[in-house]
Sequence to fold (339 residues):
Amino acid sequence: MLNGGLFNGFSYEATVCFTMRRLSLFGAIMIIVFIASSAWAQKGVRLSIATGGTGDIYYPMAGGMATILSKYIPYLEATAEVTAGSVDNCHLVGRGKADLALIIADVGWDAFHGKGKFKEKIPLRTVTALFPNSMHIVTLEGTGIEKVSDLKGKRVSTGFPGSGTEVKGLRVLEAYGLDPDKDMKRDRLGPSESASALKDKKIDAYFWCGGLPTASLTDLGASSGIKIKLIGHADAIPKMREKYGPLYVKGIVPAKTYPGQDEDVPIAVVWNLLVCIEKTKGDLIYDIVKTLFDHKPELVKVRKEARYLGLEPQAAGGSPIPYHPGAIRYFTEKGLKIK
Fold:
């Protein structure tokens, strides 16, 4: 009820101004919501990247990739997914359960040819070679393990089931004439679980295949009362190449890579790859490769291993798996001849 030009104690003019301000604020909020909704709607492509366990180097690497791709490709929203590792990742991509995957090249080679743990060929294509994968055979001072043959009779973790570590670890043992199920007590743990088990003396040694350095091994080496030892195995490479193809090369874990590691350790190395399925759209893969290379410094801040991302590994045959046409388009623009 109006009373002497007042409405509930306020002048009519004040009430109108207050109402208009509320409407203006509401309008501004609706505009912001509309803009945000429109921006979200533009992210019409959802892309998942299969990685590995949370203690695996693949997971933070792919997380950094997902952030960069989502940030710089307007139509794309990418996420990193925890998985069991390379073997699992090949199956996930092959079945359309993941769009991209980080894998180790030897596992991808088997998947591409339908051998080993793969009953059928998976039409994988390389997006880019990423960084070299270094095989670690980890033990502690005092276990009596000085060389690979000393693993006989010991309790050893050969890697998580379905992981690239397991595949490569078994090939190393095979090259030395060791049967993982007959010559040792075998556990199948991931890198973080293996490090914890070794620290607690539940196992005597473990295999781990990943980048340098790996966080869980760094943490183990920094533990009080612990002195880690890495076992060299580069002399296994000729037999591995003879049976499985030109996938493995000699590398080293440089001294001081890990706390308590005082000497260079000669090891077997194979490259890590980012892969997709053959039918993935070319423009999408082109945009992905270009974005990762254009914003490499940001990825290096996430994982130092990203420093290996470059043109040289592609030209030098870092991947035995054919490249996707979208990737070939990008590398051709950079002057490379890639098949």
